[in-house]
Amino acid sequence: MEYHDSEKAKEVAGRVEDFMEEVVLPREREALATGEQITMDEIHDFWDQAKERNLFAPQVPEEYGGQGLDFQDMLPSFEQVGRSLIGALAIRANAPQEGNMHTFEMVGTEEQKEEYLRPLVQGEIQTAFAMTEPKQGGGSDPKMLQSTAVKDGDEWVINGHKWWTSDGLNADYYLAMVRTDLDAHPYSGTSIILVPSEADGVEVVRNVPHLGGHGITERKGGHAEVKFDNVRVPVENTLGEENEGFQIAQMRLGGGRLTHCMRYSGMAERSLDVAKAYLAEREAFGTTLEEKQALRHRIADAETRLHAARCMVRHAARELDRNDARIEVAMAKMFTANVTNETIDLALQCCGGNGIGKDLPIAHFYENVRAFRIVDGADEVHRRSIARWAFEDIDEAEVENALQFDEDLRIDALDE
Ligand SMILES: Cc1cc2nc3c(=O)[nH]c(=O)nc-3n(C[C@H](O)[C@H](O)[C@H](O)COP(=O)(O)OP(=O)(O)OC[C@H]3O[C@@H](n4cnc5c(N)ncnc54)[C@H](O)[C@@H]3O)c2cc1C
């Protein structure tokens, strides 16, 4: 499908595609076939190769070691890397690191960019975004945040309990969302504070057991449960303005949701490619499965919906490069999450037992994609925002205007 992305975007994506075909996908196939995990040394080797090919960290400004692409221009490259379980990792465009880099870039001080962003891009440090808390803390409704930071001289004293902190097992720093003004509404009394995992009082309780997660690399980021018990950090560790944590998180999530859409649409596309190849080759009941109308129609629907999702993501990316695009991103995220889930489920079904088996990547994709309807805002939370937007202009005058009809004309029509 031709999307008329910019020349720059297409040029980089073409090189990313070559890298995927020549380096990443062959290694992924081998790992799936042998069960041997891809080592950290190999991942570092991917990064070196990505740098040589000028593909490394497309989302990061050039001065910090990336390719300096905006959302529209990184989009086709992110779709390409999403085709593999390890594609995004191989060019350092994987969540949550990619979203955290974006956050440092947007709101970090020059000192913070030097101290954290530069080594983060190079993979010398890892970070994790710690918002969600066990019940009754922050989750779908982040206003319920309970973790706190209180100033004591020139230090924050942090107490709280987080979980589902992606990459939290190997993070060097947590970007912890904590209440910093308990008298204010959470929207104007929350901050993001950088907490070193080595600080006294930080306890990684466990990797929360979850669907999937048996990765093909030896990298152990996990989804951590973490406790902060009177953890002291300097006030300079505040990321962005104090008490503006919600606004910063919203900026982070806008981009993070869209880049998830880009990667997951690549995953869905590859699943369809695998399924179509299987259907073209496999025979049953006198023909190849490709000939069965019942399957052809479902593939046609999946192609159509995936195309619609990609168009929505492109539109949202264009808007996000100009302003905050909150509703466009909510629509694109909710729609793409559902389309990619349905597409991967269909692809799995088409491949029969091979879909469940792990010689092919589809079963891994299936385990991975389900969370997309929950992370970064569950479907229902996005529908809530979209519905609020849909109804916000409906005032009395609007109602009267929309529902008005000319009663005389109706009576005349009835008389006739
Ligand atoms: C794989 C994975 C990775 C994650 N990574 C991170 C991370 O790095 N950092 C982080 O901070 N968090 C992370 N999370 C947490 C994730 O953001 C939350 O799970 C999500 O925001 C939902 O919050 P919750 O789990 O508390 O669900 P709850 O808030 O308890 O909601 C439960 C369900 O209720 C429904 N619901 C909620 N609100 C409404 C409503 N208004 N109307 C109707 N239905 C509603 C939804 O279906 C929702 O799924 C991750 C989660 C997963 C599964």
TrEMBL record:
GO cellular component: cytoplasm
One term of GO molecular function: flavin adenine dinucleotide binding
Source domain of life: Archaea
One GO process term, biological-process aspect: fatty acid beta-oxidation using acyl-CoA dehydrogenase
Keyword Flavoprotein among UniProt keywords: yes
SUPFAM superfamilies: Acyl-CoA dehydrogenase C-terminal domain-like, Acyl-CoA dehydrogenase NM domain-like
Domain Acyl-CoA dehydrogenase/oxidase N-terminal residues, every copy: 7-124
Domain Acyl-CoA dehydrogenase/oxidase C-terminal residue range list: 243-390
Keywords annotated in UniProt: FAD, Flavoprotein, Oxidoreductase
Name of protein: Acyl-CoA dehydrogenase
Originating organism: Natronorubrum sediminis
Lineage: Archaea, Methanobacteriati, Methanobacteriota, Stenosarchaea group, Halobacteria
